[in-house]
Every structure is written in C-alpha cells, then in structure tokens.
Amino acid sequence: MTLDKFLALSQTSLELGLVNSLTVLSLFLSYSMLNVCDLSTDGCFTLGAAVGALAAIAGYPWLSLPLAMLAGMASGFITATLQTRMGVQSLLAGIVVNTGLYSVTMSLTNKKATLSMNKVPTVFTMAKDLLKDTPLAGYSTLLVMLAAVALIVLFLCWFLKTKLGLAIRATGSNTDMVRSSSINPTFTTTVGLCISNAFTGLSGCLMAQQAKSFDINIGSGMLTVALASLLIGGVFFAKHRPIPLRAAGAVLGAFLFRLVYGLALRLDMPAYMLKLVSSVIVVIAISGPYLRKQLPLMVRRWRAGREGRRADA
Amino acid sequence: MLELKDVTKTFHAGTPDEKKALAGISLKIEDGDFVSIIGANGAGKSTLFNAICGSFPLDSGSVILGGRNVTMMPEHKRAKMIGRLFQDPMRGTAPDMSIAENLALAAGNGGWLSRVSAEDRKAFRDRLSLLDMGLEDRMRQPVGLLSGGQRQALTLLMATYHIPKVLLLDEHTAALDPGTAEKVLHLTRSIVEENHITCLMITHNMQNALDLGNRTLMMDRGRVIYDVTGEERGRLTISDLTDKFRQLSGRALDNDRMLLEN
Question: Domain B2-96+142-261 carries which CATH code?
Fold first, then answer.
C-alpha cells in the first residue's frame, strides 16, 4: 500500500471513526460513568438515523441534528423510566426498548426500510457548499464530524465536573453514597441516560446523512462496535486518568477501531466480518484482565492435579 | 430531637423465615445525646438505623426527627438530616471520584450545574486538615487509593459536613485495625463534641459503649431491653452489662466478637 492510499484510508477511517465516536462517547457516559450497559443503543442509533433522514428529506438538514438528539433523549427517558421506576432490570429495559424501537422507527419512515438522501441537501452537502472556494473544500465532511465530536467532548468535560455530573458519576460508583448525599439516584440515572442517548441519536443521524441513505439495519451491532472502541480507548487512558483524557481516549479508540477494520478490508477481509471482529475485541478486552488474574490459580490447580495423579499411580 | 413511637418491622412475614426485626420500639433521644447501642447479633440494631433512615417502609409506628414526622419521607430526602457511617469503610464514598469531588457531593453547594469553586476547595482543605492524615494534599486523588481508615475518616467528615440532626454510627470502627480504629473513634468524639451532634453508635466493644456518650441501650430480639443513663451508667462495668443481659433476656450474650474482645 502506498502512502497516498494509507492517507486516504486514514481520512475515511477518521470520518467514520468520528461518527462512531459519538456513540462511543454516549457509552462513555452510560457504561463508564453511570455503570449501565444500555442495550437500547442499536435501536436508538437507528431511530436517530431515521429522524435525521426524514428531516433532511423534508428540507431541514440543520434541524435534523437537534431532532435526532431529541428522539434519542426520549428513547433514553423510556429506558431509564423502565429501570428506575418500574422495576424492570437494567439490561432487560434496554432490550425491550431496543425491540420496540424497531416498530417505532418503521412507523416513522412510513413502513420504508430504506430512505435515500441522494437528491436532498444534508448537513454535509451544506457544509461542502459553504466551504466550496476555500482550501478546506476537500475536508468538509471531516470538519463537520470534528466539530460535532469536539462539541460533545467539551460538553462532557464541562458537564461531568458540575454537581449533576458528579452525582451521575457517583451513581455509577456508589449508589448508597448518592442517596446519603440527598440526591435521588432515579433522577441521576434518568438524566444520564437521556443525555447519552441524545449522543447516540446524533451519531445515527450523522451516519445516515454521510452515507446519504437510511437503512433500518444501520444501527445493528452498533453497541458492540462502540463498546469495542470504548474498551480500546480505555487501554490508553485507564480509569483513574482525568476525564478529558478518557473522553479523548474514547474518540481515539473509535478511530483506531475503524483504521484496523479498514486495513483488514484492504487485506481482503469480507465486510460482513466487522461484527465478529467487534465481538471478539469486546470479549478480549473484558475477559483478558479477568483471565490474566485467574491464570496463576489455574496453573496451581493443574499442578496440584498432576501431582495428585502421580501420587495415585 | 429524635423520637420513635412504637416502631415495628417484620421481614418475610407469613413465611417460615419470618423475622420480627423491630418489635415495638419507642425511644426519645434528646438533642446532644450520645447514645451507645449494644446487643447480640440479629438483635435489630442495624435495622433500627435503617428504620430511622427510611431504607424500608415501617409496618407501623412513626419516626419524628427534629419535630417533623418523617415516617413516609423517602430515604434520599431524609438523608439531608441524617449522617450515617457503616462498618464497611467502602460504603460511604465513591472510589472512582477524587477526594474533592466526594466532598463536593457531601457539601452539595450551588445549583445542579455549578462546579467546585476555589472557595469550596479551600473549605475542603481546611476540613481535611482537621483529620491530620495529610489528605488535604491529595484532594485530586481518587478515593479508591485511600486506606480503609482514611476512607472512614473522610466519610465521617462528609456525614458531618453539614451538621446532621442525628449521626448514626453502625460499628464504624469494627473493620479497622486497632490503631486506626482508635484514631477514627477519637476523631468521632471530637467532631461530635465540638458540634454538639446528636449521635447513636452501635458498637460491639462494651468498653467503648460505656466510655463514650451519656446513655447506653441494650437491644435483644427487636426490643430495647435496658436503657441506662446518669449515675447508674457511671457505675456500670462490662461484667455488669453481661450479667444484665443474661438476666433480662434469659440467655448469655452470644456475640462472639464481644467475647473475643473483652
């Protein structure tokens, strides 16, 4: 591969990585901070993509961004309500909402499984027009993504240091302590999930507009891909590091994931392998440290068993 | 003032595991009282604290705190008036957050979107230096890196950051090594005395129960079986307490930790 090709690949990876990184940042809030594994992520991503596509097709490309975020927020609110006020287990709440969202999204798109944005302006085409005669023309997609990600990262860095942000982090770290600080963990969980799902919705919206098409399966496997990216990012900036670094690590993780995936595609890995790759990465990242801790014990057991057999013989 | 009126709570009612954890407790604790509570395992001491905090709905009876009936008030709202420490030093603080951030939540200053100000930081520093553990120079470090004793001392600071109407100490030094336990107990005593905090302390250390505070309660099977203050309490020895227990409950005091330590 020539340097040119690698740079082109890097730019594509960066663009796609940045779209994904919004979902990664969403999980950074819900998974890393609030300690909730939000299984409604796939459905919420698709919902955001559909809402974004519909708004763009209706002629409101800029409005599509806040609308997709609002849709995500509504979905997050339902997931949170189910788990905090209605006794549904956290994982189950996510799955139930994820399933239900399929029908919601389909009814929004008027039973269409795909929507094309080929002939309508999207935020990306608008940005391209804006930058037409400037040296940045070739980077309009990248710039839109960068702006979105930078805004969300800055927001998170600010928000997680506010009293509400602290309370959300404490909810994930020690719920008892939140209660004893006179803060209702139901409230903090709800706010946290609403915000994180707004990011997921935005991510879906930008992904669909960038691809100029919406597909009902656009979000499938998104949670695993994002989780893989988050865990890769965590390798660089572990738990005790400052929040801005960890947020940047999440974005970096998304980029690296896309880059490795792009390289694998160049090396003739079929595209449908993406999901298996992300599953394996998640498994390795989570079970790796566990197995490493278990290894000495397994070795001791194996030795003891061998000596036992020897004594019997 | 804290008042409990005929408080009852039965767990697993109607099953073979039915347990009358609180069998009609009536108590009146005056402002500034420091009450030590002793009793065998399963006597209902921690359940009594849970009832005061609102961890579960009572079967009957009421809890009046600072002249206000809080029986139906949710736990997190009551928490404003109550400080509580558990035996487990991990329970009172969030390990992934820094010392300053933990204190900020306890302080609860400002609106939801306010941040820790330089002024707050200075206040935290001053408070932390009272602990004399060097924590004031480690405010940015995550609490998870502190020792059990340091975490318990920090929890004590957080629980009394705003003077609570009542401070509940549930064997809060039992999981610490003897030296650290002594230090945390000393801190507790000075903070409580300085601020005239009304305090209830569960302990398995009978000497502590008699040395600290001005009143001692003995609990058994969900009841208060012995309540002693003043001169009578001043004359009590540990063996008087164990005799009293045998006489009032008809059993030997079977808390193994008590036997071990005395």
Answer: 3.40.50.300
